[in-house]
Write a structure and sequence with these properties.
Layout (H helix, E strand, L loop, with lengths): L22 H4 L3 H13 L30 H36 L1 H15 L3 H11 L5 H28 L2 H8 L4 H9 L4 H24 L11 H8 L8 H24 L11
């Protein structure tokens, strides 16, 4: 009689672990987020002290070389991501919450819906650059806070229109009409009956608003409407070091890659985290 196989019966064999196909794209922005959060603790040099010649090449204690004043590009890169990520998260969360709540109310109340739609159309007509300039001039000491406020004001109308369009079918469904006939108030219908059916829309909206906030805040930083020199900021680093891109390309390429990976990775992560199937609205 032959000895039993060392590998055991087929049912007892351990299958090799495979990473889910959608997990890796969802983890795309994680390294950049960790770099932005823990960067100041890892920076080898102060952000305002020259360590090389202007636009010095990498080496000699400067991993990515020096910027236009000889400051360490790697240290400034580690310090410049936190404010951008924090500002983008603030804009994305605020715009998503306002858009979700106002959009549900607009879908349930036709008069409020028309008012919100007309107001959104007026705000959406304002060019983003002009809106940021108006906020920056009206709030000269606000800098980054003024840019964040402008991004919230200019981004909320789009979010309201998206959520209102997605909330229209559940707002006209039978279980909402039954709750309305039962005397439930408008806030209850919006927050307890309609909003829970829009999880996929709200999650996708948050991802889009975060990506848009990254681009918008970066554009404002590049135009010096937000943070001012010598503040370490990824977009500001691109503007300051553009004249010396041929001398030390890393002074421009490194912050540009960080912004691109953060925006594209977040967009892919939000897309992968969305449910694959649509959930039908049903009364509880």
């Amino acid at each position: 009689m032959s000895a039993p196989s060392a590998s055991g019966p087929p049912a007892a064999r351990r299958r090799p672990y495979r990473v889910p196909a959608g997990l890796l794209p969802a983890l795309g922005p994680v390294p950049v987020l960790l770099l932005a959060a823990a960067g100041p603790l890892l920076a080898p040099h102060p952000v305002d002290r020259p360590v090389t010649a202007p636009y010095g090449p990498p080496g000699g204690g400067a991993l990515l070389g020096g910027d236009q004043l000889g400051r360490d590009v790697w240290s400034r890169l580690l310090h410049g991501g936190g404010p951008l990520v924090a500002g983008s998260l603030t804009v994305a969360v605020t715009v998503t919450v306002l858009g979700a709540v106002l959009g549900c109310f607009a879908a349930l109340d036709p008069r409020l819906g028309r008012l919100v739609e007309r107001g959104a159309d007026l705000v959406m007509l304002v060019p983003p650059v002009l809106g940021f300039m108006l906020f920056a001039l009206a709030w000269p000491g606000g800098r980054r806070l003024a840019v964040v406020a402008a991004a919230v004001v200019l981004g909320t109308p789009y979010a309201v229109r998206v959520v209102a369009a997605a909330a229209a079918p559940p707002a006209a469904s039978g279980f909402v009409e039954a709750a309305r006939a039962g005397g439930e108030r408008l806030w209850y219908l919006a927050l307890r009956e309609v909003l829970p059916t829009l999880r996929s829309t709200v999650l996708a909206l948050f991802g889009l608003r975060f990506v848009a906030a990254v681009y918008v805040l970066s554009m404002a930083g590049f135009l010096q409407l937000g943070p001012q020199p010598p503040t370490p900021d990824w977009a500001l680093m691109i503007r300051e070091n553009a004249p010396g891109i041929l001398l030390n390309p890393w002074a421009v390429v490194a912050p540009a890659l960080a912004i691109a990976v953060l925006a594209v990775g977040t967009n892919l992560a939000a897309d992968r985290l969305l449910p694959t199937g649509r959930r039908t609205a049903a009364p509880r």
